[in-house]
Amino acid sequence: MLVRIEFLSLGPSGLPWVRVHTPVGSTVAVWRGDLDNAVGLHHIEWTVDGELLWGRNTRSAALAEPGVREEAGQVVLRGLLQFTEDGAAVLQVGDSQVLFVVGSPPLPDNAWVEISVEADKVELSPYTL
Asked: Does the predicted model carry a pTM greater than 0.70?
């Protein structure tokens, strides 16, 4: 996913916080690339630390379209949830895929969902095409 990164600050733990502007919304996250080159356009990979738990951090989406936003200190990712053959969950958010570990109870397959995660559990890593 091609995004625009804006540096915000170093957090209390020393991790760099950035604002990521995507084609489907913006939010804050932790930057895992070279801080000197963070500001600007990057292709990024999302890494989210945490399990999907239906009814707790994962719910049906009101809109069947991708989205990214901040809400009460959390990152909310909206996308189409699908499962791989080995049981991993893949959330399609625009032209990006985010992998998740699935907790319980079981989640619906091929459904539009919103996943809420504490902002410090969401990391962005740049990559070169």
From this structure: yes
